[in-house]
Amino acid sequence: MEVLRASYSIPREHRYESTLGYMGHSHSFESRIFDMNKVTILAAVAIAVGAAAPAVAADLPARAPAPYTKAPAMVEAAYDWSGFYIGINGGGATSNFDWSADGFGEEGSHNATGGTFGGQVGYRWQMMNSWVFGLEAQGNWADFRGSNISLLSANPEFAGDQNQSKIDAFGLFTGQIGYAWDRALVYVKGGAAVTDNRYNVFNGGALIDNATETRWGATAGVGFEYAFAPNWSLGFEYDHLFMGTNDVTFVSTQGEQIKQDVDLFTARLNYKFGGPSYARY
Fold first, then answer.
1. CB-based contact 190:217 (threshold 8 Å)
2. Does residue 103 share a domain with residue 53?
């Protein structure tokens, strides 16, 4: 019995080591259980958050629509009449002449008609978007002529006389005021006029007397012009020339009082330098 007891007795230090070993094993197992519990809790929290997310999103206010932005205003390029211009013109005219011989009385009247061709140069200012102001000089060659038999033919001094009037050239120096609708321009004009006149007296087909003069007067007119290209415009114009009555001395020293006026109709083609278009809203 003593032998058996001795064989089954365990030394104290061994028992202690055995006990530590068991306890150490027990502590490692409990740590693993604790780690598993943490994973389980985190997974449960994640599932709960995922389930609650749609509900929270439903409670959020809807995103406001993007603010409405008005499209920028369309910009239209309007024609600008400002600038220097040069051009040509052509047309026709009729001019009325009344002759009255000094000391004898009326010799009668006639119309001098014909064609004309010339040019013009000027400058315009466009202000307040639509009002147009300008200055212009125009010079034309002309061939306006007409005649009548003298009403004093009963007088031997004038018997058989045929009086002829002729305009060889004229010039206009005017100011303009107009109103523009983009490329269309309507204007009135007024200023000074000058004509180069020639007077002839024929008898039996032969020239027996003549005189020449440069006559100054006034003019007023109205016109319409349209810009069909950036720098080109086509226009039509009517002018009346108030040339008054002048005393004209002929080569024969015979004096005549001659009254004159002119109605002028022309078409005009102008080229404008500069004056770019401006933006109009």
1. no
2. no
